[in-house]
Structures are given as C-alpha cells and as structure tokens.
Predict the structure.
Amino acid sequence: MKTPNLRRLAADPRHQARLAAMRADLDAGMKEQGDAGRVFETPRLLPAEPAR
C-alpha cells in the first residue's frame, strides 16, 4: 500500500549533498568505534501483522 503523503527524500536530487554528508558522518563514527557493520547473529524475521 502506498501512502500518498510520503515521499522518499533520499531519492530527491535536492537532498543529495546532505545525504552524502550524513553517510560520511556515519562511516567516520563507525570507523572511530571500530564498528565494521557486521551482523554477528542470524537476523530474526518478525511475523507479518494481520491486515486491519
């Protein structure tokens, strides 16, 4: 189901510079903390919610 009042701002060219800066900040913070971004456990999928 598509929500009509939502837009994916990350896909908007007007936000590309800010998105790149945020990604760089995240990468720098992860490197500083020694976080390689690895998943050490098998992700557990949650059951789907019943339709309302």
Remarks:
- Residues 16-32 form the longest helix (17 residues).
- The mean pLDDT is 88.
- The radius of gyration is 17 Å.
